[in-house]
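User: Could you walk me through two proteins back to back? I'd like the raw sequence and the C-alpha cells for each, with a short line separating them so I can tell where one ends and the next begins.

Assistant: Of course. Protein one, sequence then structure:
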Amino acid sequence: MQVLVTGAAGYIGSHALRALASAGHLPIALDNLSRGHRAAVPAGVAFHQLDVRETDQLEALLREHRVDCVMHFAALTYVGESVAEPLMYYDNNTRGTLSVLRAVERAGTPRLVFSSTAATYGEPSEMPIRETTPQSPINPYGWSKLFSEQMLRDHAKRSPHFGYAVLRYFNVAGSAADVTIGEDHDPETHLIPVILQAALGKREKISVFGEDYPTPDGTCIRDYVHVEDLVDAHVRVMEALQPGDERVYNLGIGKGHSVKEIIDAVRRVVERPFKVETGPRRAGDPPSLYADASKIERELGWRAKHTDIADAILSAWRWFSSHPDGYDD
C-alpha cells in the first residue's frame, strides 16, 4: 500500500516508517518539523514538510501519491502543556484531524489509522481498561484526541467507502533495535528518557510527581509498550482494515509499573547513580492506567513481544548513550 504517515519525523512516526517499509509497503513521510527531526526519516523515503492543517496541500498530496491509507500521528502530546495551553492543543490536534478528514474525503482515500491515547479514559472506574470503558478525559490533551475520535465516527457514518481504526496507546518506550532512531523531545518529559538523561549526567536530577496517589507505593502506575511492538500493531491493523470498517483497539502489555518501579528497573539496567527528588503532583495525571489489550489479540493475533520493562529500558539506554544530544539536525 501507499501510506501517508503524518508526524513522520516524530518518535513513533519514524519507527512506523521503518515498520511499513519492512512489511513491503511504500511509506510517504509528512511533518511540519515543529517538534520532529528530519534526520529521523530514513533515507529513500519521500518527505514533505507540511502542516496537516493545510488542507488543500494535503489533499493534493493524497491525490499525487494515490494514497491507500493515512497513518495519522501528527499531534502535540504533553499533558502538562495541554493544561497550560488548551487552545493550542485543540487547534493542533483536533483541528488538525478535521483537516486530515476533509482532505481524505476530497481525495477519496479509503483508510485511516488514528493515533489516540489512554488519556481519553481519564480516571477509569475499572482496571484493566477495556475499549468499552467509559471515556472521560481529565486534561485537554485527552479531550483533543477524544473529539478527534468522535469526528472519525461521525464521518464514517456517512461515508460507507471509508474505513478507520482508532488505536489507544498507553505509555510508549524503547527505541529501534539497531539504535539508528529513538526518542528526542525538547523538553523531554517522558519518565524513562528523563531518568536515562540523569544517569548520563545530562540533567541534575529527576522529580517524582507525587507520592500520595492511591497506589501501592504512592506513585502513578502506567502500562509501558515497546515502540517496535506499537508500530507493528499499526501495520497489522492497517493490513486488516477495509473500507467500511470501524475498529478500536487498546495497545499495551496488560500490566502496569509504578514510577518507583521504573526508577528501580533503570538502576538495575544502567548501573549508574542519579539523584531522585519528590515534587508535587502534575496537573492532569490519573493515578493508574493499564490496558486490557485482549481485543486486538483476539481479532488480529497481535500482542506485545516485549513484556519485560528491562527490554524497553535497555534499548532506550543504547539510543541515549550513543546519541546523548539527540539527532544532529
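----
Protein two, same layout:
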Amino acid sequence: MTEQSVSLYFSVPVCGFRKGLAREYFETEEVPPPSTIYGFLLSLVGEENRYIYQGTRLAYALLRIPQWSVILRTTWRLKVKAPPGLGSNRRPDYQEILTGLELLIYVAPGELAQRLQQAAADPTALKRYGGLSLGESRDLINDLIWFPELPYQEGHWLTLDTRGNLPLPLWVDHVGSSRTIYEQFRLQTLPLQPPGEQDHRWITIRGPNFSDSEN
C-alpha cells in the first residue's frame, strides 16, 4: 500500500479533558491533548499497545471553538478501602465540559497511517470492542468521516511553541505522573490544508524511552 497521510473529521457532542493537576474542581483543557488524540486513533483501529506506534506524527485543528460550561456530577475516588463508587469513595464534584467539538486530523505517513487506511478501506475488518470515545468512555464520537471535504476554510491549529500558553501532554504516565511528557502549544488560525514537512503543527508522539532513531 502506498504511503500517504490520512485525514479524518470527527465530532463529539460532549467531552472534557481534565487537567493533570485538577483535583476538587475538574478543569478541562480547551483543546484535546495529543496523548488523547493518539489514544483515540489506537482505539479506532483496535490497538491496545500504545507503545507500538511511538513516533507517529499528528496535526489537528479545531474547526470551531467549542462551548464551555460547568456541571455537577458524581465522581469516584479512592479515599477508603472499599470498592470505587461506594461510601466516601463516591461524591459530587464540579467538572468543566466542552460541547460541540469538531476536529480535523492529519496523520503523517507511517505504520499507524497505513493501518488507518486499511480501516477506511474495509471497516468490517476492524477488530475492536466498546464505544469509540475521545478521552472518557462517556465522551462518545458522533460523526467520523474519512478524507473529508469540509465547508470550512480555516481552523484553529494546535501548534508547537515554546512560548505558547497551552501546556499539554504528549504522553501520560497512568501510574503516578513522573514520566508524563508535556510540550508547550498555542492555537493558530490557518487554512485547512495539510501542513508542510517541517511545519510546527506536526506533533511527534513519544514516550519516556523513545528516541528519534526509532522513527
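The chain has a mean pLDDT of 87.

Let me know if you want the two compared in more detail.
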